[in-house]
Amino acid sequence: MRRHYGVPRLGIRVFPTGIDDSLADRPARRRSDARPRERPYILSVASLSPHKNASGLLEAFRIARERYALPHELHLVGMPGTGADLVARRLAAAAAAGLPVRAVGYVDEETLRAEYEDASLLVFVPLVEGFGLPPLEAMACGVPVVASNTSAVPEVCGDAALLVDPEDPGAVAEAMGRVLMDPALAARLRAAGLARAARFTWEAAALATRDTYECVAGGGSA
Question: E strand or H helix at 59, and its extent?
Answer without folding.
Answer: helix 54-68
